[in-house]
Amino acid sequence: MYDPDWPKTGSSEELARFAALQQRIPELYQTLARDSRIPQTVVIVPSLSMDPRELQKITGFYHYEERMLVNLMLLQQPRTKIVYVTSHRLDPIVVDYYLSMLPGIPNNHATRRLVMLDCNDRSAIALSQKILARPRLIRRICDEVTDRERAHMVCFNSTPWERSLAVRLGLPLNSVDPELSDLGTKSGCREVFRDAGVLLPFGFERLSSPAEIAEALAEIKLRDPGARKAVVKLNEGFSGEGNALFPYEEGDEGLSRGALKARLLGRLPTTLRYEAPHESWEGFSEKYSEMQGVVEAFVEGEHKRSPSAQCRVNAIGEPQVISTHDQVLGGPSGQVFLGCTFPAVDDYRLDIQASGAKVAQALAERGVIGRFGIDYVSVHGPEGWRHYAIEVNLRKGGTTHPFLTLKFLTNGTYSMEDGLFYSPSGKPKYYFSTDTLQADRYRGLRAQDLVDIAVYHDMHFHSPAERGVVFHLIGALSEFGKVGVVAIGDNPQQAKFLYNQALQVLDEETGERGR
Question: What's the pLDDT score for residue 336?
Answer without folding.
Answer: 62
